[in-house]
């Protein structure tokens, strides 16, 4: 009966406050969130036990793979949509248009469904069918277009812009917006207003250094901006760059932009220009590290074996950078990095012997970790 059921379902009242491992009081106020978007952010900061022991530091990774869309890009997706709403560019039934091949599209798909917008995605037709299928099943209208450079007007980003302009003309009442993640600083603001403050409060202000890779630059620039401000410049911030990205040499040379050449196994990171999200913030960066694909792939396997963390390549590159920064700063320091997404969408490559051989990376996997090469 109802009475019996009620009697057996009893929940302990949540503790109002708890003390976390840094001795910091954490509010445990439990409640509901008013929509899926309320589940974005507030991700755990995970201590990487083995690397912390090895370096004598606190090496901590922000578990962005726990966001509803599975990546750090949910934060930017929510902020660019909220920004368009606040500027009156989107009304219920309106359309979001974006150029993206990856996590931003997935984040936008969740946010748009949750808030009642249509989503149109342009992407280079070199991307896997799996990515196209996933975006379509999340409700997006997807246009794979020829992969041409940014400077070419047929580049997927400019096609997205024109599509939004066209829709806005046809249907001004509902609105349409090209969210433009690379140069829309609402992306960076997501990290100034959420990621940065979360890291600061989760470490109780004991953070000494932050390091992360960039795609749009939103994460690095936004977190750096916040941490520098809140710590009076004390927190050291470092860029972690993959091969084929120009930002490492840009920072090392004090602002000289070279031609992009070569590439990396990492997806979603590496950049050929200084985006608006990075502009005016690059000067705050204390240094940069260039991380090889060999080190990145080894760390994918190490994190799995040592920590049980199933990470994508950009996260693993970040962890390598955090380890190197920890070694440079010496024992006793707290170094934070981003665990941008999980390995789920990349497993057929990262754990495939054939793929590793095709990238000349088979030898980068230490003997004792070979058992993870299962595909
Ligand atoms: N890692 C992954 C897996 C990503 O998809 C992205 C975004 N392209 C990034 C890192 C970089 O984040 P940001 O765009 O904020 O620089």
Automatic annotation (TrEMBL):
<dbReference type="InterPro" id="IPR001216">
    <property type="entry name" value="P-phosphate_BS"/>
</dbReference>
<keyword id="KW-0808">Transferase</keyword>
<dbReference type="GO" id="GO:0004124">
    <property type="term" value="F:cysteine synthase activity"/>
</dbReference>
<feature type="domain" description="Tryptophan synthase beta chain-like PALP">
    <location>
        <begin position="37"/>
        <end position="341"/>
    </location>
</feature>
<dbReference type="InterPro" id="IPR001926">
    <property type="entry name" value="TrpB-like_PALP"/>
</dbReference>
<dbReference type="InterPro" id="IPR050214">
    <property type="entry name" value="Cys_Synth/Cystath_Beta-Synth"/>
</dbReference>
<dbReference type="Pfam" id="PF00291">
    <property type="entry name" value="PALP"/>
</dbReference>
<dbReference type="InterPro" id="IPR036052">
    <property type="entry name" value="TrpB-like_PALP_sf"/>
</dbReference>
<protein>
    <submittedName>
        <fullName>Cysteine synthase 1</fullName>
        <ecNumber>2.5.1.47</ecNumber>
    </submittedName>
</protein>
